[in-house]
TrEMBL record:
Function summary: Repressor of the lactose catabolism operon. Galactose-6-phosphate is the inducer.
This protein's name: Lactose phosphotransferase system repressor
Record Pfam families: DeoRC, HTH_DeoR
MF (Gene Ontology): DNA-binding transcription factor activity
Superkingdom of origin: Bacteria
InterPro entries documented for this protein: Carb_Metab_HTH_regulators (IPR050313), DeoR-like_C (IPR014036), DeoR_HTH (IPR001034), NagB/RpiA_transferase-like (IPR037171), WH_DNA-bd_sf (IPR036390)
Residues of the HTH deoR-type domain: 38-93
The keyword Repressor belongs to this UniProt entry's keyword annotation: yes
Coiled coil: none
Entry keywords, A to Z: Repressor, Transcription, Transcription regulation
Tagged with keyword Transcription regulation: yes
Region (Disordered): 1-34
């Protein structure tokens, strides 16, 4: 009979019919069930990284319904093809991760108008009054701030930057203290264990910090490990951290992160900053000033 014939079909045949009509979910990577979706998922990962500037393994695994191990293999494959670059905890677009650092002379003429406006806006955050202290990090924008500081005899200025120390000591009547250490020729600032120890022992009112790159996931970053160590000490030794960074730094990541967004109190940038990044900063409690 027809009913009897249907009932006699092998169980395996019924399972195969269901498999033919229903996609296999990509939930694990041990049994290879996600292989047929790997190319599509990897294309999505590249698009997400380019849109957001960074993707994390944990978030991508949750979004795509696969294990973190699967995402790590995806990112490794994309890295080998030059489409993404692996970083700690995730990946960034290849074009956004930079390892080459320009010297002071090369950077000083770049985006000069934006840097000048940012420096002027930073004046509103310079401390004043008896015993006030500020730390000026190395950088062309922070150097621009040093050149227009008020002549306040009660303000103590601390810096490891040779150009900034020269400008500040000529302009400002108050004490200018230089952070000792080994001078890094490319950026003309002190680095090394001595510089870190000096900064670690400080407690200043405000630090004005420069950065080579700035993203929501990687925070403030710079190529050099020793310079990152000094910058990290500057951030931790300051009651208030003001980052001076024009919009060309946003969305760019360098090798060494020295401060997450959570460590920043104020970001002074220009009006071309990415709106999504600005929103991420506001959500993190950062005061964003557009100069």
């Amino acid at each position: 009979m027809t009913d009897g014939g249907d009932a006699a079909e092998p169980t395996g045949a019924l399972k195969q019919t269901k498999a033919d009509t229903k996609p296999i979910p990509a939930q694990t990577d041990e049994d290879g069930s996600d292989a047929m979706y790997a190319e599509e998922r990897q294309e999505a990962l590249v698009a997400e990284a380019r849109r957001a500037g960074r993707i994390s393994v944990a978030q991508a695994a949750d979004v795509h319904g696969v294990t973190p191990e699967t995402i790590r293999r995806d990112l490794a494959a994309l890295d080998s093809r030059g489409l993404l670059r692996r970083v700690h905890g995730g990946a960034v677009p290849t074009e956004s991760l930079r390892l080459v650092e320009l010297g002071v002379a090369e950077r000083s003429g770049s985006r000069a108008g934006e840097k000048a406006r940012i420096a002027r806006a930073a004046l509103a955050h310079v401390p004043s009054g008896p015993g006030s202290t500020m730390l000026l990090d190395a950088g062309t924008t922070t150097a621009g701030l040093a050149a227009i500081l008020p002549a306040d005899p009660e303000l103590t200025i601390i810096t490891g930057s040779m150009p900034i120390a020269t400008v500040a000591s000529q302009r400002c009547p108050g004490p200018v203290q230089f952070v000792g250490g080994r001078v890094r020729g490319l950026t003309q600032t002190t680095v090394g264990a001595e510089a870190v120890a000096v900064v670690d022992a400080l407690r200043v009112d405000v630090a004005f910090v420069g950065t080579n790159g700035l993203t929501a996931g990687h925070g403030c970053s710079t190529p050099d490990a020793e310079e990152a160590a000094v910058k990290r000490a500057i951030v931790s030794s300051s009651r208030r951290v003001v980052v001076l960074a024009d919009s060309s730094k946003v969305g760019v990541e360098y090798l060494r992160s020295f401060a997450p967004l959570a460590d920043i109190d104020v970001l002074i940038t220009d009006a071309d900053v990415d709106p999504a990044f600005r929103s991420a900063c506001v959500t993190s409690g950062i005061e964003v000033v557009l100069a």
